[in-house]
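Researcher: Here's the sequence for the chain we discussed earlier.
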Amino acid sequence: MPESNTAASAAPENAKPSTKYTYDYNRLAPLAMSGALPEVEGFSARPDWIHVVAHAALKILINTIMIKVKNRGENIEFVQQVLKDIQAVAQQLGGEAGRDLNNAIAMELEKQGSPTTLPQLNALLEVVIEPLAPTLSLKTLFDIARIVQQLGSVSGPASSLEDYNQVFQFISLPAISQNFRQDSEFAALRVAGSNPLTIERMKTLDERLPITDEQYQSVMGTHDSLEAAIADGRLYLADYSAFDGAVNGSFPAGQKFNYAPLALFAVPPGGRSLVPVAIQCGPRPGTDNPIFLPHDGDKWFMAKSIVQVADTNVHQAASHLGQTHLFIEPFVIATHNQLSRTHPLFLLLTPHFEGTLAINEGALSLLASRGLVDLLLASSIEQSRVFAVKAAQSYQLNLNTSMLPQTLAQRGVDDASRLPDYPYRDDALLVWGAIRQWVEDYVNHYYASDAAVQDDVELQNWATELVAHDGGRLNNIGAANRISQRSELVDLITLICFTASAQHAAVNFPQAPLMSYVPAAPPAGYSPLSSLRQEGFSENDFLKFLPPLEIAQALLDILYLLSSVYYTRLGDYGDGYFTDPVIQTHLGKFQQELLKIEAEINERNKTRTPYEFLLPSK
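Model: Thanks. This is the structure I predict for it:
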């Protein structure tokens, strides 16, 4: 174990890494992914995680059963039929899980009596699953997934938006279903949504989006102008042109479409929040690619929906999978290969890696041909993989410029005086600052000088493996891919910890409340752009544009599952995890700072677009 003021001392032999974590560069070429998953990284090694997932899985199962009963017709006694179907499914589960489910229902029926209304039924089932979930095994989770797939509750095109509402039975219909048509909600999603990472400040007008001053003023008023908005730093662009020329998917049974729109927003003079100004549904201007404005009625709404398709695909492939999950994986492998179990950085980092390799392994199965990503997203599965890899590499090959303050500055959104209402930015910077101070205190305790960093053989071997072609394949670490200063180490460790905690929370936990309702965030379009430009566009045309109902249910199931698992919490390493009293003091300071941030975010939400996804408690 290193001395309290240095990390350069050699660790005892029995503290050296005991399991070799291997690389596989073909699983998602050319990224550095884990080879054979070590047993200690598997889900089965984390029973507490299984229990949390089981709670969400049971809710999805019950929701699926309710949808199926609902679709049988009006003459069925809904409440009693749901109970019968749950009991029948329990028989399919078999073993202790099925028996326990039936017994739990029988006990509650005896206590509460038979429910006669849906709220009574829901309350009874909530009571049933709460104690049942912690008893389920990993095998039972797979059995539940299989049964949900076999039940196949809904299919075919929707005849109205109400059909999409009916996908939510035991799982509550999200609030966005009520306001997704509003321009204010559309704008808020750029700064407080599931993908608050795309908006960029425009420093000059973009010739790809030839909006006139007359068009701009028809939205913002004659007291404003494009020239003034540019000069004041009030003009912003959401650019999805990366999808231009992307190969469209067609799995499972119909042609899907991705789009490459440009969406223009502005902050009014003296205002705080973005206002949507114009949308061009492709990146090349022309008579066949008009600019739509808010007064264009149904066509404006369809243009917003096209932006939402593109944004959903950026979120899933890039912001979520590529820039959090895939980005972190090489750090997990190198940490286990090069740092002894008693090394201070091993102790600091590994709690942030818990479950990462197992979850990423599951993500790779979702990325298989004819898998869930192929089913849901707009592009072909090969194209989605390319987007994910490029997104991961955009950070992995540019580590020194991938720190939160730098990425905000690169997009020109770091100045709160120009864009006051940007909840993701403001909350993320608070959490980033707290993590960085904690990491700085930690590093400076174990490394008394820059020379101590340079002399730590394990640390230098770790950095070497991270950048090696037969290692992590990362780039732009420290100076010339060597960590020579304490400040360089602090920056890198902050980036790792922030990405694995707060950044992942920002793109993961909004999925159920903001993306599971298909009309608000379609994962793919089902109409070509040419059909969306026709005269007399109607609500029926919007329904044809949306995915079929089986896609809506599959989307709800996976996003609800992903968004419901709160397994660990930032700053909570477990009682007695750090034994050094100095580090315990620093940790206490960090935890107190997180409590202050929690209070500050709650206070901010009283006067801005509400945003809770970066509350430290979440």
